[in-house]
Amino acid sequence: MSVNRLRGVSRFLCPVFALPLVLVAGLAACTGDDPGATPPAAAMPAPEVTVMTLKTEPVLLTRELPGRTNPFLVAEVRPQVSGLVEDLLFTEGGLVKEGQPLYQLDDDTYRADVKSARATLVRAQATLKAATLTAKRFADLVKVNAVSQQEYENAAAARAQAEADVGVAQASLDRINLVNDHARITSPISGRIGRSAITKGALVTANQSAPLATVQQLDPIYVDLTQSSSELLQLRKDLAAGRLTQTRDVPVKILLEDGTPYTHEGKLAFSEVTVDPGTGSFALRVVVDNPDHILLPGMYVRAVLGNGARQDAILVPQQGVARNAKGETSVMVVGQDGKVESRPVQTSRTIGDRWLVEGGLAAGERVVVEGLQKVRPGMQVTVTEAAQTLAGKPAGPLAAAPEAGASASRSATR
Fold first, then answer.
1. Can you tell me whether residue 197 is helix, strand or coil?
2. Can you point out the beta strands (E) in 194-339?
3. Cβ distance 390 to 294 under 8 Å?
4. The domain containing residue 198 runs over which residues?
5. How do residues 277-300 score in pLDDT, each as one tens digit?
6. Do residues 352 and 408 make contact, with C-beta atoms less than 8 angstroms apart?
7. Are 328 and 261 within one domain?
């Protein structure tokens, strides 16, 4: 092929191959400077979190104390006269009433003494009757000088002596009757009686040291508690400073050994005025109804009693409180600008599923309770108000708050 012909073909093909290059260059200009560059990412939306707006509310601060149950009344049955036991008139471990016969002693000797004392009284009464008639006659005769004044006075003195003899005989009969009645030993109180220390045929003596049996009144029953004197001092400081208000007649909740709440609530009877120097604590006594005798003497129980009421308490759900390795607590707060802020807080105790805040938060602030894993301090967030269930169940005018010691042992969860 000639050189001229090749030059013609090349002039024809160059425009054809140049057209795709021009198209590629144009597309590159539309998409950017570099055809291999990655398109820019779209802006991420702000994470959504659930918040709870804090508010003040009244709560009852309580303290859980350990204690032991003790009978309301205890009576040890002892004989007041000596004799052989003829019969036992009760069932061991059963309920007895006040005045119910428990033991019958051999009373033959005492009944004979009663008859003798009664006969002495009858003789004294007969002597008095004769002396009275004589004195009456001499009173009439002395008026007409039929008897001397001395004789009349002697008759009057004999009547007075006869009256005294009747009184002595009557007192002796009463005493013998009382001794005879003591031959039948009765229960001094109503309650549950334990086992008998003696059996039929045993010899008992008057006022012996060993009781025959013990009767205990278990309804109501006492719960004896102990509380640290330092806690009492702190409570008085809080009351004096106005942080707490005094609560009166607040029912005391009783928890059994397995943690089960007891059916009946108690009432604080008194608190001891002396602190035990060995333990630094003082005693409290609670009275609890015990109609079914579920509480028995010596049982270990716990009592939840009110210390005082805080009218402007701030509570935050436990899932909104975080705790670091040092034990410091903090929460995430959403500000007015919609940004998240980490806030250190001070908490003291739990109330249900919420922490009682002592410092670091104020009413009206919004605390993040859900979505904590998605946010960091300074991030812009979208907020949703928490449902009522996240704010804790309402507990009436005063929500019960357990003691600080129990809540401090629990760990905060997000």
1. coil
2. 203-204, 213-228, 253-255, 266-271, 281-288, 300-317, 322-323, 329-334
3. no
4. 79-101+190-210
5. 888 888 889 999 999 999 999 999
6. no
7. no
